[in-house]
Amino acid sequence: MNYGMYLSATGIRANSYRQDVIANNLANAETVGFKRNHAAFHERLNEAMERNEPMSQDSLFSPMSGGLLASPTQIDFTSGTFEATNNNLDLAIQGKGFFAVQTQNDTKLTRMGQFILDREGFLVTANDQASKVVDPKGTPIQLPGYRAHQLQVDSSGTIRTGRDNQIIGQVGLFDVTDPNQLVKTGGSMFSADNLQQMMKPIAATVRSGWVEGSNVDPTHELTQLMDAQRQLEANANMIRYQDQATAKLVNEVGKIS
Prior knowledge:
Elements: H1 3-27, E1 37-38, E2 41-43, H2 47-50, E3 68-70, E4 74-75, E5 82-84, E6 91-94, E7 98-102, E8 107-110, E9 115-117, E10 123-125, E11 132-133, E12 151-153, E13 158-161, E14 167-170, E15 173-176, E16 183-186, E17 189-191, H3 195-198, E18 199-201, E19 205-208, E20 210-212, H4 218-253
Antiparallel strand pairs: 1-4, 2-3, 5-20, 6-19, 7-8, 7-11, 7-15, 8-17, 9-10, 12-13, 13-14, 15-18, 16-17
Helix pairs in contact: 1-4
């Protein structure tokens, strides 16, 4: 196989993957609680080094790279901009931390703080999943007989009644020992193997009447998208040039006169 073609092909695949990651970021630029993905790459060793066969290394090709390969996508957990909603049950966490919600199968973490009360009085996420928000002990928060405008949430996540300031609940705020182990599960939710063991309650500042928007900067993402497109085109051009050179070598230089 033409080694130059192989290297250019890995460049095409890597930048195509990079484009997909950036496109997904742009598509979620207005999604509450969304955290952008970062496309990561690593250099592949040449074949001899991969097989740990130093004696078979060629003096010409040994210093050359084995191509560019994609690494697991990384999540950028920096905070997004806060947006006012004037809804008492919309919450945003300042700094580190997550809300915990209980789905049909397990517990997940999220920074998406758009909450409502369902028919049974459970505090749930305001999306199709309607996952139940839990307190610091992991118990779903239920506030039967109340409406959203009758409740207030202070900066510690404590839920109080609007009239007599009575404490009736507490929103759980959690952090994890290693955020790099979290994976996205859709709906601005995160999970991980052994998530329950990783979670730990924390004291964080909550802002009621606000939500945290996406941390995607469309201008930055578009710049990265154009850069990925240029690199993809450059590698495609290199494949075409090498194909033309190979054709000329076979059809003209190697022709028997």
